[in-house]
Amino acid sequence: MSTPTLDKHSAALDAAENTASHAIKVTFRIRRFNPEVSEEASWQDFELDIDPKERVLDALHKIKWEQDGTLTFRRSCAHGICGSDAMRINGKNRLACKTLIKDINPQKPITVEAIKGLTVLKDLVVDMEPFFQAYRDVMPFLITKGNEPTRERLQTAEDRERFDDTTKCILCAACTSSCPVFWNDGQYFGPAAIVNAHRFIFDSRDEGGEQRLEILNDKDGVWRCRTTFNCTDACPRGIEVTKAIQEVKRALITRRF
Amino acid sequence: MKIHKYDTVIVGAGGAGMRAAIESTKRSRTAVLTKLYPTRSHTGAAQGGMAAALANVEEDNWEWHTFDTIKGGDYLVDQDAAEILAKEAIDSVLDLEKMGLPFNRTPNGTIDQRRFGGHSRNHGEAPVRRSCYASDRTGHMILQTLYQNCVKEGVEFFNEFYVLDLLLTDVDGVKKSSGVVAYELATGEIHVFQAKSIIFASGGTGKFFKVTSNAHTLTGDGQAAAWRRGLPLEDMEFFQFHPTGIWRMGILLTEGARGEGGILRNKDGERFMEKYAPVMKDLASRDVVSRSIYTEIREGRGCGPEGDHVYLDLTHLPPEQLDAKLPDITEFARTYLGIEPYTDPIPIQPTAHYAMGGIPTNVEGEVLADNTTVVPGLYAAGEVACVSVHGANRLGTNSLLDINVFGRRAGIAAAEYSADHDFVELPEDPAQKVVDQVERLRNSTGTERVTELRQELQECMDANVMVFRTEQTIKTAVEKIGELRERYLNVSVQDKGKRFNTDLLEAIELGNLLDLAEVMAVSALARKESRGGHYREDFPNRDDVNFMRHTMAYREVGADGKESIRLDYKPVVQTRYQPMERKY
Ligand SMILES: Cc1cc2nc3c(=O)[nH]c(=O)nc-3n(C[C@H](O)[C@H](O)[C@H](O)COP(=O)(O)OP(=O)(O)OC[C@H]3O[C@@H](n4cnc5c(N)ncnc54)[C@H](O)[C@@H]3O)c2cc1C
Ligand code: SF4
Ligand code: FES
């Protein structure tokens, strides 16, 4: 009756269960900035011994806790759920807590810097306000007309599935801060705001689609997107960001959603 | 120092804080102070679901839910509160749906429900489908939906403001709450918020354990602030250890995985829960499953070279089901362990998960200064509070429910209080204590390091006051915590700046953890029985004669300035359910 788990003991599992920690020497090259100390940003190298199966966030903690308490970054959940720690790691936007050191070639120095396009306030901390403002501007809440039903609104499983992908967003800004259009013009709403507009536009319960589409039809709206796919590559939640933007564009033309 | 004046101030923007804010913003001028951006709160990590007897997929009713909650809590639950929780659950879920929450749906379009540990049909007959869920990211969807509605209502947030002190003012011999003191992360500036009513919704305190599902930021700041101002903490010995954390990392794999049919196995592939809980098996309540896992490990049936974990086996479930119902947790296994859950079982171990105890409140969310007296104007809701609806052990899906039901209640009650009352004068030099604390740490040249003390604390807690406790292990912990508290006086930080000084705040957070760890250990030492999450090997049975009562811990400061902890007790409210032996 019971599945014999031992037969299923695979190589992957053996590797995972290999308890001996194999610490290796890794260099982290971190972009430092603290206007209390200097107006100039600079690179600083930190060397440490760490198991490559650990997260980049673990390495940053190890540096902060054991070498330099002034190193500053945001973090909370440590497993890719809260969206605090998007940063540029080896030139790509990622969550530090979702990136294992072994997966980013620890033989060479690993570069870590703040995400681009938002003002750096200290080390890896950026000003998130413009990002959240763009989000708030797309009216990211369910808009309905008429009387509320006493029970729940009905929605078919298919209708629910229609916008499932964009409900996963954790507002980490990895997408928006990887977008060349956003780098050049901070007025552009950016992919994350459009993703969150998509989440409501394609929700069968929502009746604010027209209003939201008008906002996105603005000169700083969806039409600025150049379909470079950086955002989709950057999204730690695996959201098809570019596809969502395309769907919003199509809805603008056809007014069907 | 800046002084602000609001009718209502809410500390925390997780589920409880934002649910409260939606109500209180409609009724009073409200500020929400939060150390994290609202959407970073740990409510977003909750996976499994939110309980409500909607009866959408099978027969169910709130009375059964009440019973399960009380039984799950090993009868330490206040039964009047549990009844409110179960009754208001239904509207609470429907409210979220109306706010836009994308629940999974049944074929006829209603909210879908699934099984969860300890939730049963007709008083324990069989598991029931009561958990309303949105894939395995229910907490994420609750947090997003509440934030979205805060945006809609125009709730005023002060993001990255750390509340470090609660202000109480003596008015004719009555202690009333008059405000809070906050530290602004970006600038290092100290702010005083004067308010007619204050709601603490600052979440849990799991970071005093090493293996935990809790975020780095869950450091019990709210509990510690109340504690240091002489308010009691209730039932702090009760902490929940969730059976299925990722081995060594503690990242949670929802009980929903077992709700979907996942099975726990030991190194022989045996489904060992059949031995310990013949009816509910893998879905027995969490304390029971966690102890069973450790019993297997101790008796040599653990997995891996060190025999220190067991498996969560999902391999018999169709990949489509895993993709549809458990996409996030299967991805955790892939990302952090390099394991493919379609084909490989996942190594797990119990992980420190949830504080049943906290700041005592009544069912309106009013904070209690002792067994009966309320602190006028002060409220608490969510994991920081102890109502007590969870008693000695919280049922899965009852906390997302708790934050919504009691967050809403506290939000309404606090705003109504603000409407009816005037500001209470602030005490003299309201920010003095915080200024002193911050300056002392910033200027200290002490030799102790935060990271070392924290690590020693966490290791001590894991070793001595986790799933199994004895008089001896708890005494070891009390002693060690005492030593760490001494050494903490000599702690220093490297970052002396004002801007985003997270080094300094980690030191303050450690101070909170140390105080609360001591309360937990001292409360646990005195409870010479086993009940729910508190298991004493030297007293393995529940003792209703001596311990059917809540622990109330008080901080006392002697004439010589020495601190000590005094324990008192509070009766459990029992209405219709007589305590029975708990079997699953
Ligand atoms: C991994 C995981 C999975 C879970 N799954 C479930 C589940 O499926 N079902 C269920 O019912 N329960 C679940 N729980 C439990 C439940 O999620 C939590 O108990 C609940 O979300 C706590 O909500 P809260 O609002 O009280 O606190 P949190 O969401 O933790 O929010 C705390 C807030 O307080 C703020 N704060 C903290 N300290 C300060 C300070 N000093 N100053 C200012 N602000 C401060 C923070 O910024 C944050 O906004 C789970 C818990 C975890 C850890
Ligand atoms: S779409 Fe993805 S990358 Fe962009 S903010 Fe949301 S989660 Fe982050
Ligand atoms: S710390 Fe939460 S996403 Fe990385």
Automatic annotation (TrEMBL), chain A:
It is an enzyme of class 1 (oxidoreductase). Residues 159-181 form the 4Fe-4S ferredoxin-type domain. Its cofactor is [3Fe-4S] cluster; [2Fe-2S] cluster; [4Fe-4S] cluster. It comes from the Bacteria. Its EC number is 1.3.5.1. SUPFAM superfamilies: 2Fe-2S ferredoxin-like, alpha-helical ferredoxin. Pathway: Carbohydrate metabolism; tricarboxylic acid cycle. It catalyses: a quinone + succinate = fumarate + a quinol. GO terms for biological process: respiratory electron transport chain; tricarboxylic acid cycle. Keywords: 2Fe-2S, 3Fe-4S, 4Fe-4S, Iron, Iron-sulfur, Metal-binding, Oxidoreductase, Tricarboxylic acid cycle. Transmembrane segments: none annotated. Residues 24-118 form the 2Fe-2S ferredoxin-type domain. InterPro entries: 2Fe-2S_ferredoxin-like_sf, 2Fe-2S_ferredoxin-type, 4Fe4S_Fe-S-bd, 4Fe4S_Fe_S_CS, Beta-grasp_dom_sf, Helical_ferredxn, SDH/FRD_Iron-Sulfur, Succ_DH/fum_Rdtase_Fe-S. CDD domains: fer2. One of its GO terms (molecular function) is electron transfer activity. Binds 1 [3Fe-4S] cluster. Belongs to the succinate dehydrogenase/fumarate reductase iron-sulfur protein family. This is Succinate dehydrogenase iron-sulfur subunit. It comes from Streptomyces benahoarensis.
From TrEMBL, chain B:
Residues 454-584 form the Fumarate reductase/succinate dehydrogenase flavoprotein-like C-terminal domain. One of its GO terms (molecular function) is electron transfer activity. PROSITE patterns: FRD_SDH_FAD_BINDING. Pfam families: FAD_binding_2, Succ_DH_flav_C. The modification Tele-8alpha-FAD histidine is found at residue 42. It is a peripheral membrane protein. Pathway: Carbohydrate metabolism; tricarboxylic acid cycle; fumarate from succinate (bacterial route): step 1/1. Residues 7-400 form the FAD-dependent oxidoreductase 2 FAD-binding domain. NCBIfam families: sdhA_forward (TIGR01816), sdhA_frdA_Gneg (TIGR01812). This is Succinate dehydrogenase flavoprotein subunit. It comes from Streptomyces benahoarensis.
